[in-house]
Every structure is written in structure tokens, then in C-alpha cells.
């Protein structure tokens, strides 16, 4: 694997290139960096695979005096990486990375041949968008009040809830971090890119439907078979419908491509088989 640093607009983006063969396959996440794609990358030894760290995360730095992770800025960074490696590419994008990828296709329609956008967490496609935003704000408030353990426990409660956010959900007490094996002590930090305010622009993004329809890119919205009616399962289904399609079911859960090193292993081998099939 070869690592490179690319200077973009007030950022230094680190990206990796491994393997050789076929059309380049890029894998992106948010707030996940390149380290999350180790197991999935191994399923494509016959392809040139590109991974990267978003600006301000992992090995990538930023000097733009900002901390927010906007899809527009991240899409410009991904575009710069694709130009550097030589596109167009096939693109697998996970979670917030799938939101960035939708903006990438809208803004730079010649960059991507096939996009597989896996469970983009877009609130405003949901029929209960106002309640979903309230639920999101709930775990963010828990983080600001109690720190990382409290915030992550509340995030797990929010993201695993099945179905629309009802009065029953909002009547739940904040969960004890200990039930998820996390410390309750507050370390004083408030810089977590998932639990803080940095990624509000991701969940508040709305797809540019007309630009996506006009792009030559084949777009596939994917959903995990185990995700069910949890938040990102529902956002995937409704994003697909917004684009005039049905979500394509992939093995496992929201992190179905992950190996066991992250503590919540998916099924990366099965996931890779399905991704190869969808990419054709």
C-alpha cells in the first residue's frame, strides 16, 4: 500500500492506494477514516483500491480554521484525490461518506461510474424528520452535558431504535453508559466528530435530486439486512425512494464491511461478494 499527501484548499489530505487492476475503486466514510476499510479492501486484491482520511480526521489536517464537516467541502477533497489518482472511479461510501458521495456526484458528475451509497444518514428524507432531528439533538445534548460515555450511550439508543421516533421513544430515560461497557466519567473533551456539532451538516444535507438524475453515474443506495427499521435503515430506504429506486440489501449491519478489530464485526467477506456483484 502506498500513502500520499495531497494539498487541497487549506487542507492536507492523506490517501492510500493499494493493489493494481481494473477501474479504481474508492472507499470513503465519515467520520470513519481509511482505517475502517482494511477488511473490505482485502476483498478486492484484483482492483486498485483508494482510501482516504477526511480533512481534520485521522492523518489528514486542515488549516481553514473550521471544524465542521460539510459534504460540499469533503466532496471537493474527494474530487481532488480522484483527479490525483486518475478517474473516473467506482465508489463505495459509508454513512456520512455516502452523503459526501451524493454531493460529489452532483457537483462532479464525471468522477464516478458507479456509486454504492450505504446507509446515508439524511434526516429530511424521513416522514418523521422533525422527530428524528429532535432525537439526534438528544444524544448531542447528552454528550455536551455528560461527555463521551453519556453521549455514545444516547447515540446507541437513538440509532438502534426501530421505527419512527414516537412519544414512547422520547419518554425513555438516558441510558447508563455502563450497560454498553463504557465509562460514565466525563473526560472534559467535546471534540468527538460523531457526537458533537461538527457533523450537523451531514445529517442536515438534502440530496440534489435533479443534478443526480442528470449525472451519468449509476447510483445504488444500499441498506444492511440487519439494520431493519433503525435510523440509517430508514434513511437509506427513503433516500432510495427519493431517487426513484428501491434500496439494495447488503449483508450485515451499518458497519457490515468492518472486521473484528473494531469490536462490532460485520461480515466483510460476504459484504465484499455483494459489492463486487453490484459493481458488476
Rg calculated over all Cα atoms: 18 Å
Low-confidence stretches: none
Based on DSSP secondary structure assignment, what is the total number of beta strands? 9
- What series of H and E elements makes up the topology? EEEHEEHEHEHHHHHEHEH
Q: How many strands, what sense, and barrel or not for the largest sheet?
A: 9 strands, mixed
Q: What's the helical proportion of residues? A: 25-40%
- Content of β-strand: 15-25%
Mean pLDDT, rounded to whole units? 96
Which keywords apply here?
globular, about 35% helix, 9 strands, about 280 residues, nine-stranded mixed β-sheet, alpha/beta
Write structural notes for this entry.
With 280 residues, this protein is an alpha/beta fold. The protein has helices spanning 38-41, 71-85, 96-107, 129-146, 148-160, 167-170, 200-203, 209-214, 231-242, 268-279; strands at 2-8, 11-18, 25-28, 49-52, 61-62, 89-94, 112-118, 218-224, 248-250. Strands 1, 2, 3, 4, 5, 6, 7, 8 and 9 form a 9-stranded mixed sheet that branches. Strand 8 (218-224), helix 9 (231-242) and strand 9 (248-250) form a beta-alpha-beta unit. Helix 2 packs across helix 3 and helix 4 packs antiparallel against helix 5 (148-160). The two termini are 25 Å apart. The model has no long low-confidence stretch (mean pLDDT 96).
Give the structure's gist in a few sentences.
The protein has about 280 residues and is an alpha/beta fold. Helices cover about 35% and strands about 15% of the residues.
Write the layout of secondary structure elements.
Blueprint: E1 2-8, E2 11-18, E3 25-28, H1 38-41, E4 49-52, E5 61-62, H2 71-85, E6 89-94, H3 96-107, E7 112-118, H4 129-146, H5 148-160, H6 167-170, H7 200-203, H8 209-214, E8 218-224, H9 231-242, E9 248-250, H10 268-279
Parallel strand pairs: 3-4, 3-6, 6-7, 7-8, 8-9
Antiparallel strand pairs: 1-2, 2-4, 2-5
Helix pairs in contact: 2-3, 4-5
